[in-house]
Write a structure and sequence with these properties.
single chain, 409 residues, alpha/beta, 24% helix
Length: 409
């Protein structure tokens, strides 16, 4: 091919301009695909996992840790999650003071009790259970997190403080990462408290996260879990936020505060799980046709209801990955219902009106009384455009509901 002289000059001047753009596009991370969520009638593209946090095994002032853990482990078969994730402060480690000659530390006893509860009695293995470290798990260690590595389920299985793995059902690939946020300079509880419990992601930790995100950048969705909230990072915060954004991570789950909260920041769902030890709380996260739904739960409170389709427009404040509902006589509604007793009826209603409509069992999902329920005959043709509420209630051990907001197209 021959170029006219003016064509040569055109490419001579334009090439230096477009080359950086080409290089930038080729180097930009391709991450998860949360935009791939869709509202569909398929009722098989669904799974769920459970988050717990702050079990504080070994706290000497209360027996809540043992009581609540045993109760949770006795109930988990009812929920039957694919994965259980603990987001740190697995043990307590704080009630001793070797510096001033106070009560001697017996952290190995705490870890042995942790293993007795979760492994010997609960049957937790790395195949289903992954436990990230918290700041309490490194207190009074000569080398931070040495006992965590040798005694926790994740640490013992991997010999690492961070872990990456994938869950691959027939309908997709889902990437999970547990990270280690405790700051290694704060192994004395008083100084950690005085500094505001700072978090840290060092260079090696950031490189691990980036490498794993890049290795699994074809995942449908990516989830990351750690102990501290992002704003408490005094090392690695900017790098971590960039990775979350560039790889389109869908959810960051954490504990530490002992409170429950869910909020969207920079298109990321930040899910703060309340303490199992302190308040009997845990959380269930469901994925339905790549749409995320969340409900907080409390041990020994049944039934637990979680609407999975449609997804909540207001999840975390303003859900960036929601969808609008079409005007149709055959729209689907799906909900997970978990109960220790028989559920006699599951119903839905719109905008809090008095009229309830029945849903049907689809299939068993957990214990003998836990099912996926649905209707495919939701008539939305008489609804106005804009926002509405959907409530699904289950009648079983007691009567409990889940309520979401959706938008008509």
């Amino acid at each position: 091919m021959h170029f006219k002289r003016k064509d040569k000059y055109f490419y001579f001047f334009i090439f230096p301009i477009i080359l950086p753009i080409i290089l930038w596009i080729s180097s930009t991370a391709i991450g998860g695909n949360p935009e791939g969520v869709y509202y569909g009638s398929e009722n098989t593209n669904i799974f769920w996992f459970v988050l717990i946090s702050d079990t504080h095994v070994g706290n000497p002032f209360t027996v809540k840790d043992r009581k609540h853990i045993n109760q949770f482990l006795s109930e988990i078969d009812i929920i039957n999650p694919e994965i259980i994730i603990a987001t740190g402060d697995l043990t307590d480690h704080s009630r001793c003071n070797p510096i001033t000659g106070g009560k001697p530390c017996n952290h190995i006893r705490e870890w042995n009790e942790y293993r007795l509860l979760f492994i010997n009695r609960g049957g937790m293995t790395i195949d289903i259970y992954s436990d990230a470290p918290g700041n309490h798990d490194q207190y009074w260690n000569d080398e931070p997190l040495t006992l965590y590595i040798s005694k926790s389920v994740q640490g013992r299985a991997t010999s690492q403080t961070q872990r990456s793995w994938v869950y691959m059902p027939v309908f997709g690939k889902y990437h999970f990462i547990n990270i280690a946020t405790p700051h290694p300079d704060y192994t004395v509880p008083f100084f950690d408290w005085l500094a505001g419990n700072p978090a840290e992601l060092g260079e090696d930790e950031i490189n691990f996260i980036e490498g794993e995100l890049n290795s699994h950048n074809d995942a449908n969705l990516t989830f990351i879990f750690g102990h501290h909230y992002i704003d408490s990072l005094i090392v690695g915060k900017d790098d971590f936020i960039s990775l979350l954004r560039n790889y389109k991570v869908s959810l960051y789950g954490y504990g530490h505060t002992h409170n429950y909260a869910a909020n969207i920041r920079n298109n990321l769902l930040n899910l703060n799980v309340a303490s199992l030890w302190d308040s009997s709380h845990y959380a269930i996260v469901a994925v339905d046709n790549d749409g995320i739904s969340v409900t907080p739960a409390v041990i020994d409170q049944w039934p637990v209801v979680l609407i999975t389709a449609p997804i909540d427009k207001n999840l975390g404040g303003t859900n960036p990955y929601t969808y609008k509902i079409p005007f149709s006589i055959c729209n689907p509604i799906r909900a997970l219902v978990f109960d220790e007793s028989q559920v006699t009826q599951v119903q839905y209603r719109i905008d809090g009106k008095d009229e309830w409509y029945s849903m049907s069992k689809v299939r068993l999902i957990g214990g003998s009384n836990s099912y996926l329920w649905e209707t495919k005959e939701w008539d939305t043709t008489l609804l106005g455009q804009g926002d509405h509420t959907l409530e699904v209630r289950a009648i079983g051990s007691t009567i409990r509901s889940d309520i979401i907001k959706f938008e008509m197209n």
